[in-house]
Amino acid sequence: MNTLALEVKNGKATLARWLIGLAVAAALWFAVYSHLTEFADLVVNTLGLARGSHLTEAVHFFFYDTPKVLLLLLGIVFLMGVIQTFFSPERTRALLSGKRLGIGNVLSASLGIVTPFCSCSAVPLFIGFLSAGVPLGVTFSFLISAPMVNEVALALLFGLFGWKVAALYLGMGLAIAIGAGLVIGKLKMERHLQDWVRAIHMGEAQAANGESMGWVARFQAGAHHVKEIVGKVWPYILLGIAVGAGIHGYVPQDFMASIMGKDAPWWSIPAAVAIGVPM
């Protein structure tokens, strides 16, 4: 009896430590996230870079976006890790894969449209779907639609050009996301996943039954996801942001306008797309 009481007491103490630690971490997260611009300004000033130069703009972009993306990744991956403990891989797979071909893609693409996520936060959610056992093609429908159909842009298009243009923008984004997801699903691209992603996709990263887990175990699962996912992808994030910083700093702001004028040649649209992908 004393042993049982001691275990309960230790469990409550561990949960209390987790809750205090998470509260402190959340406060620090919001404090840092709300001062990213000041941090980037401090780095630029410390390096003595001249304001307005290409190098300054590139450096400022890098030191603003790097902590921003990493903070989003840490927060979202942890939350997804905790949320996944409430859903078995089979339950989530059944929810989004659907009984008929394409139903899961439609649901996933629609979810991507209504959720206010950019690429930075859609990618961790995309990985979270994979770790819950959702088929790769279905997860790609979400990954494509989330940043492609922007709710702010949709509202602006409606206000500036009317419902027809807004509906065309929404419909094309939805169609591309669903179509691309179906194609990727048919191609069986799971074999090209990295080994650690494939292990997550098969459900190996979620060893416990979500219905019987306590909160300490759920928090530990979230921390495990952060270690496994962020620990693997952060070099690629830094590389991608570095490329984006170079483009941001050295590509003139009026460059796109110069090739997309009123009398622009036929190749202006594919050129704009090719330039817009890395940007």
Report on this model:
With 279 residues, the chain is an all-alpha fold. It has one domain (2-249, 266-276). It is built from 13 helices and no strands. The chain is globular, with a radius of gyration of 22 Å. The termini are far apart. Mean pLDDT is 78; it is low at 204-210.
Précis, in short:
By secondary structure, this protein is mostly helical.
Strand count, sense and barrel status of the largest sheet are: none
Query: Rg from C-alpha positions?
Result: 22 Å
Q: How much strand?
A: under 5%
Which descriptor suits the 3D outline? globular
Order of helices and strands: HHHHHHHHHHHHH
Count of DSSP helices? 13
Helical content class: over 70%
Number of strands: 0
What's the structural domain tally? 1
Topology:
Elements: H1 2-33, H2 36-47, H3 54-84, H4 89-97, H5 103-114, H6 119-131, H7 136-148, H8 151-161, H9 163-187, H10 195-201, H11 215-250, H12 255-259, H13 268-276
Helix pairs in contact: 2-3, 3-6, 3-11, 5-7, 5-9, 6-7, 6-10, 7-9, 8-9
For this entry, give a set of tags.
mainly alpha; 279 residues; 77% helix
